[in-house]
């Protein structure tokens, strides 16, 4: 353990000590960079003043933090500011903070009786109340069809009118712009015998709609994307065409990163293991897997992933997107049919397109639509020739990242028995996040994973690493190893990334020995009674690298089990709470992804900015939220997407609910349930435990 | 008859009345008179036209009403089947296995892949034999693997940022170190800006479709790497091919495209030349100044993949632009890898602001993928710093390349297609000692290749299976003598044009001159032993 375990409060001051430990290296880093940098950058830096010491602004200084006056900061170039701010240790500002900042110090600090916290509160929240736990598992009978509630007609109409208005204004601006400010349109016009790289019609949406709200996207951040995140404040002098960093940082509650189990940490047992692996292995395996890019770590990780999922074998790929896009072509080709959910991720679509197989789409999560397509395609065979399809691969996602819906796995398994298709489940978002043991949708629904042909998932989300895996039987995986693009041509997974995922996965599973399997799983963990499937037990210590020493809490699997149960509570609490407040929420109640429907394009940026400004009510804290609109969603259903994490405490979710309640009133977003059935936010907060247990 | 017409009279009257009612109510719609006048006048000029227009209108309506997914059902050869027939067909359908199991030989090959125990670097310990061997197969050109300074900085980054970025760049995955790395890359190369991707392989196959759309034109080298092939495939662009690394052939193709466009009177479209700096498939090097001259003459944009040459070629590893002293701004999309040249991970595309900003919205692998882990971005930045400050490490690389070529060049049993300055050296088995073919094969083109087809006019003739077996024997023999090299692993059947089997040697500055000499000697002995036996 990296931490003194004497008292809790000392831990939260640790940030200052740790800052001293890392500051010299960070400064050296900057110094070497600066010294070595070429003239251009040096000149830029000479021109700009060094930024004001990063003083984080919080709710106490509301207003000033969101829109700092441009005059107060000299004209910094984007790049030079980035370079200089790296040297500013994030914890430096923390010293100036008051001790009661809720983002840094727990609301209810641990007493001497409580177990001491194991992580920095800013990265992983301290929450010791056993009531605020829940077990994620499927209750038979719950409907799995997407419950997409429609907004009132007025909202619908207003949304369409807004888009019409935006498009009309955009065209007007283009019309006059081209005549009066031709320089701005130069790169959109053919010039000098070259066609425009990007036509003005093709880029209309980006230039005239997205640009208006682009300040809500790609916000630069620093530090750990954990429970809180540090965001660079920026201003735009030219209506979002360019941004300038003000040199100030805002610490905000992070309900946007895919950090479901809270393993995005710079401290703690998992990070210590990653640290050790850099010392031992360096940073790269130096080549593709099939050409000497395989290390013992890769083998260990693959064995562990297979064990974690309960599959025979697994392989790891260095990028989540590429896991789909480079292995799908190895499974299907011309003459095969891929039946794909209409909301499947872009990586799946890329992979299928590369494979040359035929594609048909079925309605999102609608098993009757899938069955109809299956009957039609099997009976009709290939187009024109009517030859039978070589094989049919049904590709679905476990948890849809924009909808928050789970795949209807029970229904799908029944279809699979009847129609003999192969099943490919992309568990990018569900693995590690749902199910009583965190093993994804199979665990959640109590389905034997070996009945699924291919399980795919990523390490970016729940495990705080990067890359992805494919798991299946040994024959399949061995064949895929020899013919997938990534193994032959792409870099293999980097050692620290492998270590992070191995350590995180092992701590969800628990490691045996030293502890008997009985110790795994906290009390209250229940397996659905009807489930024929028993989840695979703890990770055998022999799989893990010899040098990896995890702290006892991680080894026993206790920490992992707690995280799973905290995530399940937080997800369900937020989803149920927002519904009770009256919002239109998509998705299932156990989903850690909670989409809140906004509809009107004009309300999206306002929602995002208000949540960040945190000036809707006293004691508000800033939030960073993700807004999604067309083309990621259908035109009409713009939404905010919250990603819950085990690192959030109940108090954090309370804060989020309070903030949404205020902003929701302000923006007229509550159209889910009639006024009479709604609860007040205080009621929701008080009756949280009861709410979570409700259907 | 009269009775009949009498009986029909009320019906006719009714039809008449309702028609005139319809006509009058149609007239009452504002603007209807214009339509009637238009139809009348067009009927006068050309009676057929009205008919044609009505058919056109009906067709348009049909197309609109017909949803895409139901196209099969409406198709002519849709067979109407009863439910029980469908059930029967479903019962009868037996799919092929998902994949074919590996043959024993393939399984043995897979199991025999070298597994490195511990860090990868110039000398590695192999898990299977427990021996430490000299490594001439891993990409470690500048010898940055295991660099203590980079490791320290990476650990510093780990302690500040954690490992994963936990989000795509659009959603709080843009970390300051990413912006720093992009700036470092742009400054290092001298381009306006750069954008980073989280896997090198996916970079090229994302950059091309971000710009090249249906109707655009790509003129590409026949020998481009797999990643570029995939990018071209997914972009659905019109492709014309020119002979591998043959700029005379490129010029011919460019001229023919120009003629074709003039003949068709096609509107101005985006046109791209796609090539590599140092070709991954055989280590040849493109004549960059000439390529740029052609590109400018014919007004094409250039996509140059420097995945191998970045970090390995040029005085400080800036790649071909440095070697030929060409400003990087002349290359519209310069694609490179941070995994090979910088021993980190990920790829990048450098170009103008317009080029990089466009990818932030349209590069699929950028938009839909989690950002590069912060510690890998930091180590890439550090590696750039080292390259910039210590040109010495690449001097050693150049020296080692010379050593290896000195040992191998004179061997008669092999062909080396690679450029003398390329740190990536490919070795072919020489077919028959009689034909002393020039590897750069420009001279003896008898007939011209067709730009539409991927297959060149006179393709190399080789027997994949036997050559691969021989090369594998060489690899095994070298490994037994303590030098790790690798046969190039190809996805046979998936490559656009089957590349010739080869052994790959990635020379590294991480080994001393003496060690390199020794390793090259071992490879030479293995080649002589295996290939000499053949004759």
From TrEMBL, chain A:
Entry GO MF terms: pyridoxal phosphate binding; serine C-palmitoyltransferase activity
Chain segments carrying region Disordered: 1-23, 38-61, 100-121
Similarity comment: family membership: Belongs to the class-II pyridoxal-phosphate-dependent aminotransferase family.
EC number: 2.3.1.50
GO biological process: ceramide biosynthetic process; sphingosine biosynthetic process
Originating organism: Dacryopinax primogenitus (strain DJM 731)
Classification via InterPro entries: Aminotrans_II_pyridoxalP_BS, Aminotransferase_I/II_large, AON_synthase_class-II, PyrdxlP-dep_Trfase, PyrdxlP-dep_Trfase_major, PyrdxlP-dep_Trfase_small
Feature: compositional bias, Basic and acidic residues: 38-47
Start and end residues of each Aminotransferase class I/classII large domain: 253-502, 558-659
Cofactor(s) the protein requires to work: pyridoxal 5'-phosphate
Catalytic activity field: L-serine + hexadecanoyl-CoA + H(+) = 3-oxosphinganine + CO2 + CoA
Taxonomic lineage from the root: Eukaryota, Fungi, Dikarya, Basidiomycota, Agaricomycotina
Protein's UniProt name: serine C-palmitoyltransferase
Cellular component annotations (GO), alphabetically ordered: membrane; serine palmitoyltransferase complex
Stored CDD domains: KBL_like
Compositionally skewed regions (Low complexity) per UniProt: 1-13
Gene3D superfamilies: Aspartate Aminotransferase, domain 1, Type I PLP-dependent aspartate aminotransferase-like (Major domain)
UniProt keywords, alphabetically: Pyridoxal phosphate, Transferase
Ranges of compositional bias, category Pro residues: 107-118
TrEMBL record, chain B:
Annotated organism of origin: Dacryopinax primogenitus (strain DJM 731)
EC number: 2.3.1.50
One Pfam family of this chain: Aminotran_1_2
Enzyme's top EC category: transferase
Record's protein name: serine C-palmitoyltransferase
Cofactor(s), by name: pyridoxal 5'-phosphate
Superkingdom classification of source: Eukaryota
InterPro entries, per the entry: Aminotransferase_I/II_large, AON_synthase_class-II, PyrdxlP-dep_Trfase, PyrdxlP-dep_Trfase_major, PyrdxlP-dep_Trfase_small
Keyword Lipid metabolism set for record: yes
UniProt record similarity statement: Belongs to the class-II pyridoxal-phosphate-dependent aminotransferase family.
Alphabetical keyword list: Acyltransferase, Lipid metabolism, Pyridoxal phosphate, Sphingolipid metabolism, Transferase
GO BP annotations, alphabetical order: ceramide biosynthetic process; sphingosine biosynthetic process
Upper classification of the organism: Eukaryota, Fungi, Dikarya, Basidiomycota, Agaricomycotina
Pathway: Sphingolipid metabolism; Lipid metabolism; sphingolipid metabolism
């Amino acid at each position: 353990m990296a931490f003194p375990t004497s008292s809790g409060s000392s831990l939260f001051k640790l940030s200052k000590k740790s800052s001293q430990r890392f500051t010299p290296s960070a400064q050296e880093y900057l110094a070497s960079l600066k010294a070595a940098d070429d003239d251009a950058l040096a000149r830029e830096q000479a021109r700009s003043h060094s930024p004001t010491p990063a003083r984080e602004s919080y709710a106490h200084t509301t207003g000033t933090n969101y829109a700092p006056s441009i005059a107060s900061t000299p004209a910094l170039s984007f790049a030079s500011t980035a370079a200089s701010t790296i040297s500013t240790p994030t914890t430096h500002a923390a010293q100036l903070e008051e001790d009661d900042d809720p983002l840094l110090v727990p609301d209810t600090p641990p007493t001497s009786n409580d177990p001491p916290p194991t992580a920095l509160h800013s990265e992983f929240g301290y929450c010791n109340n056993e009531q605020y736990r829940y077990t994620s598992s499927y209750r038979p009978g719950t409907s799995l069809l997407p419950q997409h509630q429609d907004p009132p007609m007025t909202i619908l109409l207003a949304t369409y009118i807004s888009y019409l208005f935006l498009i009309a204004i955009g065209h007007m601006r283009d019309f006059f712009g081209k005549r009066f400010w031709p320089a701005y349109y130069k790169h959109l016009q053919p010039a000098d015998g070259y066609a425009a790289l990007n036509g003005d019609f093709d880029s209309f949406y980006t230039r005239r709609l997205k640009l208006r709200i682009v300040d809500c996207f790609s916000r630069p951040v620093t530090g750990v994307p954990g429970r809180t995140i540090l965001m660079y404040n920026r201003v735009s002098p030219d209506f979002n065409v360019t941004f300038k960093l003000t040199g100030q940082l805002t610490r905000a509650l992070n309900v946007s990163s895919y950090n479901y189990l809270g393993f995005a940490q710079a401290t703690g047992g998992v990070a210590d293991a990653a640290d050790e692996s850099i010392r031992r292995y360096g940073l790269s395996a130096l080549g593709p897997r099939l050409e000497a890019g395989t290390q013992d770590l890769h083998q260990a990780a693959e064995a562990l992933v297979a064990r974690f999922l309960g599959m025979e074998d697994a392989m790891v790929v260095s990028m989540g997107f590429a896991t789909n896009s480079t292995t799908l072509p190895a499974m299907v080709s011309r003459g095969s049919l891929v039946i794909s959910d209409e909301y499947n991720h872009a990586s799946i679509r890329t992979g299928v397109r590369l494979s040359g197989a035929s594609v048909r789409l079925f309605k999102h999560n609608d098993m009757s639509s899938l069955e109809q397509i299956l009957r039609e395609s099997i009976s009709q065979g290939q187009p024109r020739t009517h030859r039978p399809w070589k094989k049919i691969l049904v590709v679905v996602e476990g948890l849809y990242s924009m909808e928050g819906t789970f795949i209807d796995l029970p229904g799908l398994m029944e279809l699979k028995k009847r129609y003999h298709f192969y099943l490919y489940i992309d568990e990018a978002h569900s693995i590690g996040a749902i199910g009583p043991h965190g093993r994804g949708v199979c665990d959640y629904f109590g389905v034997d994973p070996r009945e699924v042909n291919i399980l795919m998932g990523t390490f970016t989300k729940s495990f705080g690493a990067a890359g992805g895996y494919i798991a299946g039987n040994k024959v399949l995986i061995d064949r895929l190893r020899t013919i997938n693009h990534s193994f032959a041509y792409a870099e293999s997974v980097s050692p620290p990334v492998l270590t992070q995922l191995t350590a995180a996965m092992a701590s969800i599973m628990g490691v045996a020995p030293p502890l008997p399997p009985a110790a795994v799983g906290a009390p209250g963990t229940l397996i659905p009674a009807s489930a024929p499937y028993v989840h695979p037990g703890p990770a055998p210590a022999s799989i893990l690298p010899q040098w990896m020493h995890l702290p006892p809490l991680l080894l026993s699997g206790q920490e992992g089990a707690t995280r799973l149960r905290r995530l399940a509570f937080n997800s369900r609490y937020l989803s149920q709470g927002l519904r009770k407040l009256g919002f239109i929420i998509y998705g299932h109640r156990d989903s850690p992804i909670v989409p809140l429907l906004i509809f009107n394009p004009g309300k999206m940026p306002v929602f995002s900015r208000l949540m960040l400004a945190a000036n809707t009510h006293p004691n508000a804290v800033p939030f960073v939220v993700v807004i999604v609109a067309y083309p990621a969603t259908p035109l009409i259903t713009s939404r905010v997407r919250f990603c819950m994490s085990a690192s959030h405490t109940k108090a954090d979710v309370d804060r989020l609910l309070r903030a949404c309640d205020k902003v929701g009133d302000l923006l007229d977003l509550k159209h889910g349930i009639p006024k009479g059935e709604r609860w007040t936010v205080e009621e929701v907060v008080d009756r949280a435990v009861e709410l979570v247990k409700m259907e | 008859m009269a009775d009949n017409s009498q009986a029909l009279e009320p019906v006719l009257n009714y039809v008449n009345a309702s028609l005139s009612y319809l006509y009058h109510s149609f007239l009452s719609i504002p603007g209807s008179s214009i339509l009637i006048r238009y139809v009348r006048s067009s009927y006068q000029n050309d009676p057929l036209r009205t008919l044609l227009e009505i058919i056109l209108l009906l067709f348009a309506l049909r197309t609109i009403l017909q949803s895409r997914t139901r196209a099969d059902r409406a198709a002519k050869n849709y067979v109407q089947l009863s439910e029980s027939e469908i059930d029967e067909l479903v019962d009868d359908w037996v799919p092929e296995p998902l994949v074919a199991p590996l043959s024993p030989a393939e399984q043995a090959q897979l199991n025999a892949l070298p597994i490195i125990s511990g860090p990868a670097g110039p000398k590695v310990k192999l898990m299977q034999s427990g021996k430490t061997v000299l490594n001439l197969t891993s990409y470690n050109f500048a010898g940055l693997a295991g660099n203590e300074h980079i490791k320290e900085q990476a650990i510093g980054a780990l302690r500040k940022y954690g490992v994963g970025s936990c989000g795509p760049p659009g959603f709080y995955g843009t970390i300051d170190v990413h912006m720093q790395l992009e700036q470092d890359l742009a400054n290092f190369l001298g381009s306006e800006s750069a954008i980073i991707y989280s896997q090198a392989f996916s970079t090229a196959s994302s950059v091309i479709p971000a710009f090249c759309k249906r109707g655009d034109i790509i003129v590409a080298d026949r020998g481009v790497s797999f990643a570029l092939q995939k990018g071209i495939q997914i972009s659905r662009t019109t492709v014309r091919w020119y002979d591998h690394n043959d700029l005379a052939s490129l010029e011919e193709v460019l001229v023919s495209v120009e003629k074709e466009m003039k003949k068709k009177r096609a509107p101005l479209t985006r046109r791209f030349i796609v090539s590599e700096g140092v070709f991954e498939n055989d280590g040849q090097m493109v004549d960059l100044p000439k390529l740029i001259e052609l590109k400018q003459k014919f007004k094409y944009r250039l996509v140059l993949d420097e995945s191998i040459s970045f970090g390995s070629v040029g005085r400080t590893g800036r790649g071909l632009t440095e070697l030929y002293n060409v400003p990087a701004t002349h290359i519209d999309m310069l694609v490179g890898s941070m995994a090979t040249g910088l021993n980190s991970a990920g790829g990048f595309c450098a170009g103008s602001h317009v080029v990089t900003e466009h990818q932030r919205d349209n590069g699929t692998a950028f938009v839909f993928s989690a950002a590069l882990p912060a510690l890998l971005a930091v180590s890439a930045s550090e590696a750039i710093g080292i390259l910039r400050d210590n040109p010495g490490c690449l001097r050693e690389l150049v020296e080692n390349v010379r050593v290896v070529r000195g040992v191998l060049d004179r061997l008669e049993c092999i062909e080396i297609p690679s450029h003398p300055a390329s740190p990536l050296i490919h070795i072919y088995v020489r077919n028959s000692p009689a034909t002393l073919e020039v590897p750069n094969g420009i001279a003896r083109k008898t007939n011209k290749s067709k730009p539409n087809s991927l297959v060149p006019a006179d393709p190399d003739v080789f027997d994949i299976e036997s050559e691969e077996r021989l090369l594998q024997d060489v690899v095994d023999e070298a490994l037994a003598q303590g030098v790790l090299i690798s046969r190039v692993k190809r996805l046979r059947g998936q490559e656009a044009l089957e590349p010739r089997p080869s052994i790959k040697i990635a020379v590294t500055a991480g080994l001393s001159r003496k060690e390199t000499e020794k390793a090259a000697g071992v490879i030479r002995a293995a080649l002589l032993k295996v290939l000499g036996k053949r004759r």
